[in-house]
Amino acid sequence: MNGLSLTVRVACLACLSCPALATAAGNVSPQSSGVILGATRVIYPLNGKGVSLSVTNPRDFPVLVKSSVLDEGQKKEAPFIVTPPLFRLDGGQQNALNITRTGGDYPADRESINWVCVQGIPPEPDSAWAGDEKQSSDKKVSMSVQVIISSCIKLFVRPESVSGNPVRVADKVSWKVSGKILTAANPTPFYMNISSLTFNGAKLNIARSYIPPFAEEKIPLPAGAATKGTLKWEVIGDYGEKKEKTVQIN
């Protein structure tokens, strides 16, 4: 598409959603405006010219699609542009977002993480941009609350020196318990994305849901937890596939 290299790893038409933003808009019932992204993650080659990501409006009314790329903490803009940054997407239609890096100093020996965030903004009863798609007053289902859902998925900036799929090297992650802390050490250049984590059958919560490259992540154990036993975790690959790993901690 316009010379852009398509490196989005398509997994399923679903994505993680950030908390919804609600604003008053009408007088009947709440209505969600979430759009559907064509992947659960984006792999961006460090020296690539760009990637594309599909976005679909599953509703029967138009929405404004607003997109941006944020830094790891989702606090500020990352050095990427998304085109088009704001556009109308009719109900049941699909369009492509083109994501292009504009700068930034990214390491050449490991992945970096940013976030692609996409909002679907529904029309208010008097929205001029909705045009002919606005429902007539006698047929319109008005909204008492606009539910604007911001869908954010991970964007991994991957240098040429990092090849393959994190699933294939997940066994290199080591785990140990010291006191009431479980420590995971990731010696690989990949982000290890974790979908589930249990120790002796008890579910554990990992704050960031991933272990950064060449780094450790400390996870508190619940009160009364044993210091030995069976740890199971699921790592997520480039295409959204999940692979369960089992580790005995002695």
Automatic annotation (TrEMBL):
Entry-linked Pfam families: PapD_C, PapD_N
Location(s), subcellular: Periplasm
Keywords: Chaperone, Immunoglobulin domain, Periplasm, Signal
Keyword Iron-sulfur: no
Main location: periplasm
Family designation: Belongs to the periplasmic pilus chaperone family.
Signal peptide positions on this chain: 1-24
Domain of life: Bacteria
The keyword Signal is assigned to this record: yes
Name of the protein in question: Molecular chaperone
Boundaries of every Pili assembly chaperone C-terminal domain copy: 186-241
InterPro entries xrefs: Ig-like_fold, PapD-like_sf, Periplasmic_pilus_chap, Pili_assmbl_chap_C_dom_sf, Pili_assmbl_chaperone_bac, Pili_assmbl_chaperone_C, Pili_assmbl_chaperone_CS, Pili_assmbl_chaperone_N
Any one of the GO BP annotations: cell wall organization
GO CC terms in record: outer membrane-bounded periplasmic space
Domain Pili assembly chaperone N-terminal residues, every copy: 34-162
